[in-house]
Amino acid sequence: MITESLVPIGNDIASLGLMLTSIIYLVCYALIAAFCGIASSWIGFRKQSVIATIVASCIIMVTMCQIVAMTFFSGVAMILLLAGMGIITFLAVESMLSQARKMEI
Questions:
Q1: Of 29, 60, 31, which is closest to residue 44 (Cα–Cα)?
Q2: Model-level pTM?
Q3: Cα gap 5→92, rounded to integer Å
Q4: 61-72: per-residue pLDDT in tens?
Q5: Closest Cα partner for 68 from 27, 32, 15, 14?
Q6: pLDDT digits 0-9 by tens, 5-55
Q7: Sequence-separated (6 or more) residues with CB below 8 Å from residue 81
Q8: Do residues 36 and 16 make contact, with C-beta atoms less than 8 angstroms apart?
Q9: What helix, strand, coil percent values describe the chain, rounded to 5?
């Protein structure tokens, strides 16, 4: 590339393996962020408060950002985090659906 020949940003060569690894990490981190958003919505839905949703979202995301920073160099930790958040999200969605069925229209 022209820019890399003038001002090299990195020393590594952008191989196909590196690109696929980056895409996999990107998808995993996007799923973790989506799971955190659903968990925050569940807390707000349970409390029936928009403020509770916003506060829960801020607290959960700050905590998750600190945990995710530890998973940059460990694929196993990222998979465990993804599985844990997936289970929490599944339970949150089930709870929200149950509460929605019980609501009066």
A1: 60
A2: 0.71
A3: 50
A4: 888 888 888 777
A5: 32
A6: 677 776 667 778 888 888 988 898 888 888 888 888 888 888 888 888 888
A7: 32, 67, 68, 71
A8: no
A9: 80, 0, 20
